[in-house]
Amino acid sequence: HEALKAELLDVALEAARRAGTFLRDGRPDDLGVAATKSSAVDVVTEMDIASEKLITGFLAERRPADGVLGEEGASSEGSSGVQWVIDPIDGTVNYLYGRPDWSVSIAARKDGETLVGVVHAPMRGETYRAVLGEGAFVNDRPARVRPAPPFAEALVGTGFGYLTERRVRQAEVARHLIPQVRDIRRGGSAAIDLCDVAVGRLNAYYERGLNPWDFAAGDLVAREAGALTGGRPGEALSGELAVAAPPGLFETLQGLLDDLGAWHD
Ligand code: IPD
Questions:
Q1: Signal peptide: which range, if any (predicted)?
Q2: Is ligand 1 within 6 A of the CB of residue 87?
Q3: If you measure from the C-alpha of residue 3 to the centroid of ligand 1, how many angstroms do you get, rounded to a whole number?
């Protein structure tokens, strides 16, 4: 597995860098001003699709036998057993408004296990990466979670989905949580939120309704940095519920979210 993991990491880093540079340099300057116009949204959608094409094209060159699963529709089985899970822009709304927290998220899975995760955040000048069993890094520095604070002092990240019905429920959960913790952040890129837990910029993160491409890479980065991640108690992190925090905080937050019904709409 060692040689395979090293190769996958190399390929993921290069693919993410290429897409990140394309997105940063190719973003029209007036997009933020025009953010409310549907034409601006169309530009972002086009960039999203072009970024995914760039990534899948590069992967097809370097690892032709692998499968892919991408937010913009890329989907193939492949024959190698390796599957790439790709979010060509995570934090699309931030990208639209010219806010810096957007990322390219790329993970490689084999036999249901994520082996490699890369979250590249060009406007932060940071790339988060992890290899299963080998730790997490931000650029070339090791990434480590912040030790668990008392619950009342936790800075907790979250996100809200696009469906109105879901957002009503998410607001309910947040309403209960806000008085119990230091504060809440809504960063706008789930992949970056998970990496922020990994580097100690958040104590914890949770969200309902993510897709695999939002969390595959960030989940591994968070775990390799010392976080626990999961869904409802006893379950793996999934689209139903994603929770990430250091031991000691994780169990409390997970239990509370379960009680509050954060896992259903
Ligand atoms: C979204 C972001 C956001 C989260 C949403 C996701 P996208 O991904 O990760 O932070 O709250 O649930 O859908 O659409 O920008 O790739």
A1: none
A2: yes
A3: 33
Give Cα 127 to chain centroid, integer Å: 12
Q: List, for residues 184-241, the tens digit of each pLDDT value.
A: 999 999 999 999 999 999 999 999 999 999 999 999 999 999 999 999 999 999 999 9
Looking at 2.60.120.10, 3.90.110.10, 3.40.50.2300, 3.30.540.10, the CATH number of the domain 2-142 comes to: 3.30.540.10
Is there a binding annotation on residue 219? no
- In this prediction, the residues of the chain whose per-residue pLDDT falls under 50 are none
Q: How far is CA 251 from CA 151, 227, 246, in A?
A: 11, 11, 9
In short, whether 159's Cβ falls inside 6 Å of ligand 1 is yes
Judge whether 25 is annotated as a binding position.
no
Q: For the domain with range 151-260, which CATH number is right: 3.40.190.80, 3.40.50.150, 2.30.30.90, 3.40.50.2300?
A: 3.40.190.80
Is this complex scored with an ipTM above 0.95?
yes
Query: What pLDDT, on a 0 to 100 scale, did the predictor assign at position 40?
Result: 83
**Ligand 1 centroid – CA 113 distance (Å):** 22
Distance CA 82, CA 55 (A): 15
29 is in an annotated binding site: no
Ligand 1 pocket test: pick from 214, 240, 241 the residue with the most ligand atoms within 8 Å of its Cβ.
214
